[in-house]
Amino acid sequence: NAGVTQTPKFQVLKTGQSMTLQCAQDMNHEYMSWYRQDPGMGLRLIHYSVGAGITDQGEVPNGYNVSRSTTEDFPLRLLSAAPSQTSVYFCASRAGTVGPYEQYFGPGTRLTVT
Amino acid sequence: AQSVAQPEDQVNVAEGNPLTVKCTYSVSGNPYLFWYVQYPNRGLQFLLKYITGDNLVKGSYGFEAEFNKSQTSFHLKKPSALVSDSALYFCAVRSSSGNTNAGKSTFGDGTTLTVKP
Question: Which parts of A17-85 are beta strand (E)?
């Protein structure tokens, strides 16, 4: 199993540009989520999905969209990039919504918005 | 609302000494508690978890954690630290009560562990 994969690993955007961060998992996990990691602020949940076709907002959803058309894929779209979105983004998955399942994290995407 | 506090931004220990990384939490109902480790420029890796039962949980790489319900704590420990244990450690909590909070996990801000030779 490849686990959780993310592309790209690095990205530089200009303010106002849009892009999609890709995330895929091959473990048939039901639950997927996107986090951003900023220094001293831990991980903050952007959006999550409890299954294909079902998504919901986390604590910092503004400026981001997600979709979950398949179990495997959970892309994160930045609609109009802003310097405040400069961060490291992690995708994670776990086997189920309910139950003591640990999360599996991707390697991250380091995004810089100028 | 659920929350996690890691009161120390940085923990420094000498190689061979015991280490403790502290975590306290707040959650509705009984908790699921997790520790993750992050090495530089990498994603988080699962270390161990508390589900129920025995208050001392053993995990990967010789780490263990002690659950204390009355103090709402879940401190990470290792009897003898290695230089290779140097990393960023995150504590996380989730409610075990069905779909409470939609199964969302809350992470602490992280503690940087430095083990010196």
Answer: 19-25, 31-37, 43-51, 54-57, 64-66, 76-78
> How far does CA B90 lie from the centroid of its chain?
6
Instruction: Give the model's confidence band at B98: pLDDT under 50 very low, under 70 low, under 90 confident, else very high.
Output: low
Tell me the two tokens of residue B14.
């000498």
Q: Do A105 and B44 touch (CB under 8 A)?
A: yes
Give the model confidence (pLDDT) of A87-101 as tens digits.
Answer: 999 999 999 988 899
Please state, in angstroms and rounded to a whole number, the distance separating the CA atoms of residues B3 and A102.
Answer: 18
Tell me the C-alpha to C-alpha distance, in Å, between residue B42 and each of A27, A104, A109: 20, 12, 10
Residues A61, A63, A67: CA angle, nearest 5 degrees? 65
* Residue of chain A whose alpha carbon sits nearest to that of B52: A100
Q: Which helix (H) or strand (E) holds B66?
A: strand B64-68
C-alpha A34/C-alpha A28 separation (Å) is: 17
What's the token pair of residue B59? 């995990």
Q: How far apart are CA A56 and CA B56, in angstroms?
A: 35
Q: How many CB pairs under 8 A join A and B?
A: 56
Please state whether beta strands B19-21 and B73-78 pair in parallel, antiparallel, or not at all (unpaired): antiparallel
